[in-house]
Design goal:
It is built from ten helices and eleven strands. With 299 residues, it is of the alpha+beta class. It is globular and about 55 Å long. It starts with 5 loop residues before the first strand and ends in a 9-residue tail after the last strand.
């Protein structure tokens, strides 16, 4: 529902089809080369106009709704930057697993920025929104762009890439999160033992543009997989199960712990999800989705 006093927006999750760490930066972050794909699965955000003040609620009790929440911090940053006198109440209906490598928090922050820009009728230039986004996190700029993209720097340099991939995506989360900080800190140690060079990212961009599922599967890469799989061997078992059940390719997304498989047919992905829950237990979280084709998040 949309009224003058309320806007509802979709906050998509993402998967990383490619994530190569190219080095450590002086500011503590890492330089990346990553391709992210937005999904048609994610959270819902409602922004309601208030005379003053900023507040937030969420239907997942595990998620803080104070200034520890990136979405609320994004609202404050926008209000301060644009000297907004009005307030807003943010309602987050959380569907994305927490600390899952699916970009949930970054997506929420980006969508709050875009939605409050409309709700408050600010007409803030995209360059300003991207400036705010870059100051808060690495993936927020990607979600502001709203399409499959090649991201560099620490993730804030976003270059949209053509994506005609028609594959179905099966997400599997083992029920625990992985700290992004731990994953990056553990990367250097794991990388020292790697002898195989990652495929060039151009192989993946070409395969995405041509809807070449086999080519996409062959070109996928994630620098953070080695440390995470080393600590949590179940991730490797889940990837093997995805491939055994028909996935053209399987990989961990971001810093984990979600893994995903790419399938040519939705029916095969649904069947694989049923088989994997039967093998690993019914509590294993699975979701069948596809790439997000929407061009407008706020409706």
């Amino acid at each position: 529902m949309t009224t003058q006093a309320e806007l509802t927006a979709f906050s998509p999750a993402k998967i990383n089809l490619y994530l190569r760490i190219t080095g450590k930066r002086a500011d503590g972050y890492h330089d990346l080369e990553t391709i992210m794909l937005p999904l048609d699965f994610g959270d819902e955000i409602v922004c309601q106009l208030r005379p003053t003040g900023l507040s937030m609620e969420c239907d997942n009790a595990m998620l803080p709704t104070d200034d520890r929440n990136l979405a609320l911090r994004a609202a404050r940053q926008l209000a301060e930057r644009c000297q907004v006198k009005q307030g807003a109440h943010i309602i987050l209906r959380k569907r994305t697993p927490l600390a899952a490598g699916l970009g949930g928090g970054s997506s929420n922050a980006a969508i709050v920025l875009a939605t409050l820009n409309k709700l408050w009728k600010l007409n803030t230039a995209p360059v300003i929104l991207n400036e705010l986004a870059a100051g808060m996190g690495s993936d927020i700029n990607f979600f502001l762009a709203g399409s499959t993209a090649l991201c560099r720097g620490r993730g804030e340099q976003v270059e949209p890439v053509p994506c005609r991939l028609s594959a179905t995506v099966l997400l599997i989360n083992p029920g625990f999160g992985i700290s992004t900080k731990w994953a990056y800190e553990s990367w250097a140690k794991a990388a020292a033992g790697l002898t195989v060079a990652p495929p060039p990212v151009t192989l993946l961009t070409r395969a995405l543009a041509e809807d070449d599922l086999a080519g996409v599967a062959a070109a996928m890469f994630n620098s953070l997989e080695a440390p995470s799989v080393g600590k949590f061997p179940v991730l490797d078992l889940l990837k093997d199960a995805l491939r055994t059940n028909g996935a053209a390719g399987a990989m961990m997304s971001g810093s984990g712990a979600t893994v995903f498989g790419l399938f040519a047919k939705t029916s095969d992905a649904v069947r694989a999800a049923t088989q994997i829950r039967a093998e690993f237990g019914p509590s294993m979280w699975t979701h069948v989705t596809r790439a997000d084709r929407s061009s407008e998040s706020v409706h």
